[in-house]
Input
Amino acid sequence: STPVLVLHGGAGTISRSMSPEKNTAYRRALSEIAAAGRDVLAAGGSAVDAVTETVRLLEENPLFNAAYGAVLTSAGEVELDAAVMRGQDRAAGAVTSVRRLRNPVLAARQVMEHSHHVLFCGAGAEAFAAEHGAELVDPDWFVLPERREQLERVRAQDPHAFVVDHDAAGLAAENQEGDEAEASLASGGDPIEPDSKRG
Amino acid sequence: TVGAVALDAAGHLAAATSTGGITNKQPGRVGDTPIFGAGTYADDRSCAVSATGMGEGFMRAVAAHEIAALMTYAGLSLTEAAATVIHERLPEVGGDGGLIAVDAQGNVSLPMNTTGMYRAVARVGGELQAAIH
Output
């Protein structure tokens, strides 16, 4: 079979106010990163190499919700999760609730390759990854102003609803029904409504 | 959430997923991304899967492994199994989102039950497609 790579950058409610500039930026990012992952396969790299590098590049791109530019918790902080699994032998590694690992997907791979365990969380995950050469950054490094604005926008509409946290699409829908202009402003021209992004 | 699945020249599969979670989530909440069989899964005998969506639904449906199980035990194709999970199993537990999957023959499936999703497919020596659905 021909080697193939598939990637995703999240799912949600499609925006009614996608700007041409944002459309182009997202498409370019998707294409460039997919090409980079394909290049790994074309050079004889393994499927694990390809998915790791692809996700690392997505983590480094603030258009997407992972690592640099990630969304924020209700405490205004980042909490990052990542996982890698190898189909040949079903080896697996994951990290969760980490705040200082620049590339959580690399840490997940370290767990898979250097531990008898499958899943590490929090400070223990960070310490394990650091022991194996992972790059640590200050948690504020991940945080972008637009993500703080996104958090404040959601909290302003319902500051304490856990369910609404997950169902932000409902907020976006209410916005659109009540005030189209406000919804357009909130989306910032993103192809998919930022407040509706699933994950 | 971001993710990737791949089939390499040796016929092996892999999956990876990474996420910042959801805006305004309760600190400590963990979704499906690092839960194997829910949001991430790979098995050369069936498929590799990476999901994005409302994580609780993917965990309740054990969505990624459900696709593999439908292929292994019910004989469904990748497309049939992925569609069954996204459009039948996931709604049963109140979940929404999408996933990407590839099988050992290089077939790909990218179903979703939300209105939008960022995706790309690139085959070695073939066409690269990137889309905002």
About this structure: Chain B touches chain A through 80 residues (CB under 8 Å). The mean pLDDT of chain B is 95. The two ends of chain B are 16 Å apart (CA to CA). Residues 120 and 130 of chain B are 4 Å apart (CA to CA).
